[in-house]
Amino acid sequence: MLRSLDELPKQGSRTPWRLNQNYLLDLRLIRYGKIADEGLRFSKHTAAVTV
User: Fold this and answer.
1) In angstroms, what CA-CA distances link 24 with 3, 16, 20?
2) Cβ atoms within 10 Å, residue 39
3) What is residue 24's predicted lDDT score, i.e. its pLDDT?
4) What domain of life is recorded for the organism (predicted)?
């Protein structure tokens, strides 16, 4: 992983993965934007299981 770190993308080509470097635009996206991406899955935290 460390060897190929410079080959990984730093940001995406479209929202929400595009970094604006603008605080107000990023704040608006975080507060009011919808993040719909097939690579993300949001779920509730589950309790830890002791073995």
Assistant:
1) 35, 14, 9
2) 5
3) 93
4) Bacteria
16 with 37: CB under 8 angstroms?
Answer: yes
The Cα–Cα gap between 23 and 44 comes to: 29
* Degrees, nearest 5: CA angle 3-7-8: 105
Contacts of residue 17, Cβ cutoff 8 Å, sequence gap at least 6:
11, 37
Q: What are φ and ψ of residue 7, in 5° steps?
A: -95, -15
Do the Cβ atoms of 37 and 14 come closer than 8 Å? no
- What pLDDT digit, counting tens, does each position of 2-31 carry? 888 888 778 888 776 777 888 998 888 878
